[in-house]
Amino acid sequence: GAVVSQHPSRVICKSGTSVKIECRSLDFQATTMFWYRQFPKKSLMLMATSNEGSKATYEQGVEKDKFLINHASLTLSTLTVTSAHPEDSSFYICSAREVAGDEQFFGPGTRLTVL
Amino acid sequence: AQTVTQSQPEMSVQEAETVTLSCTYDTSESNYYLFWYKQPPSRQMILVIRQEAYKQQNATENRFSVNFQKAAKSFSLKISDSQLGDTAMYFCALNAGGTSYGKLTFGQGTILTVHP
Do A109 and B44 touch (CB under 8 A)? Predict the structure, then answer.
């Protein structure tokens, strides 16, 4: 149990376009989902916390207009990178937390390459 | 604010031997959770072991065990009988209570290589 999926696993896009990444909890309800960014051989950097039915809480320094997060249901959160630029190229990971749970379950990640 | 520090960027060990990865943390919360995650080349984050701060007994999961020293704010991971499949990046993480409840603060990571 406790499986989290992400789609797509890899995406290549042109500079200036927008890209949407989906994060789904497959076998549990997740009131809270988290979005991380990771550079090669570096740690995970929390970008934002998304709660079902409410606005996401962004970490300091993360542009909320660039990284749009929507958590429309208890099993789905989306991250949209708007007007992507090469510096947005990175590995994006989501995680989900069960209701009243203290453990996060991680998705397999999405590799974004902006040309 | 919570901090997690892993002071060993890279470690290596021979197959079947034992290795210990270090982690120190800081939090003002009295109730918190500590985790070790493994990230193999596939980059899927895998939970290795967890420890609740209120439990004095050190957690163990098969070949993996922790040395939790609450007063020293230290949380090291011992891997016994190392296997080639243990090669990965290992992250120590803290889930503290209070207003940060639910968020994970990660250490910088330790790249572990197991040699045959």
Answer: yes
Query: For B91, which of A43, A102, A103 is closest by C-beta distance?
Result: A43
**What residues of A are in contact with residue B89 (Cβ under 8 Å)?**
41
A59: closest chain B residue by CA: B103
Cross-strand pairs, A24: A5, A76
Residues A28-39: tens digit of each pLDDT: 988 899 999 999
Is the separation of the CB atoms in A21 and A8 below 8 Å? yes
**What are the residue ranges in chain A where pLDDT is below 50?**
none
Q: What is the pLDDT of residue A11?
A: 97
The string of DSSP codes covering chain B is: --EEE---SEEEEETT--EEE--EEE-S-SSEEEEEEEE-TT---EEEEEEETT--SPPEETTEEEEEETTTTEEEEEE-S--GGG-EEEEEEEEE-GGGTT--EE---EEEEEE-
Which of B104, B108, B113 to mutate to probe the A interface, most A CBs <10 Å?
B104
Average pLDDT, rounded, for chain B:
94
pLDDT at B98: 63
Give Cα B61 to chain centroid, integer Å.
12
Q: What is the DSSP string of A32-46?
A: EEEEEEE-TTS-EEE
Per-residue pLDDT tens for B33-87? 999 999 999 999 999 999 999 998 999 999 999 999 999 999 999 999 999 999 9
